[in-house]
């Protein structure tokens, strides 16, 4: 399957999940994350879920991060240039959905990519080599290319790995891990 066919397949699979399934599977993913050797870091970047797209509910991950007293970073999208600006999530952070229903910080304390130790990456699908398939705008590939080389990249997926993707581009940034409700994949990238 090409990337467009895979996007359609996984968008459809997600849309067929009930709200209860999304919640239960998201909790399972959060529990799997606790087993990873990543909790000695300081700055953790996560996405805020687009509930209309039935993305993984990252509120459970946020609870873990806050419980472990970690610095949590979230992003604001710039659709003009495909960039993300990163802000520290604090109790004073105001979150507002943009016109694409992406919850984003209104403003706050900006955090450079080079400070971020771990990135939890949204995706539609991933393959057995750790390549991810997003919505196709390239926001995360641009962002991840600016992070330090040792930044740990962790995909979160309701579904298991696809065979190796046919289409991989030089600008695609591979994952170190991908966590599903029942399994953690570790990639040697």
UniProtKB/TrEMBL annotation:
Q: Does the keyword Membrane apply?
A: no
Q: Does the keyword Transport apply?
A: no
Q: Which cofactor does it need?
A: Mg(2+)
Give an example GO biological process.
tetrahydrofolate interconversion
Q: Which GO terms describe its molecular function?
A: 5-formyltetrahydrofolate cyclo-ligase activity; ATP binding; metal ion binding
Q: Enumerate the residues binding ATP.
A: 3-7, 132-140
Q: Per its UniProt entry, which superkingdom is the organism in?
A: Bacteria
The record, for InterPro entries, names: FTHF_cligase, FTHF_cligase-like_sf, NagB/RpiA_transferase-like
Q: What is its EC number?
A: 6.3.3.2
Catalyses: (6S)-5-formyl-5,6,7,8-tetrahydrofolate + ATP = (6R)-5,10-methenyltetrahydrofolate + ADP + phosphate
Q: Where are the transmembrane segments?
A: none
Q: Which UniProt keywords apply?
A: ATP-binding, Ligase, Magnesium, Metal-binding, Nucleotide-binding
Q: Which residues bind substrate?
A: 50, 55
Recorded family membership: Belongs to the 5-formyltetrahydrofolate cyclo-ligase family.
Record protein name field: 5-formyltetrahydrofolate cyclo-ligase
Source organism of the structure? Pustulibacterium marinum
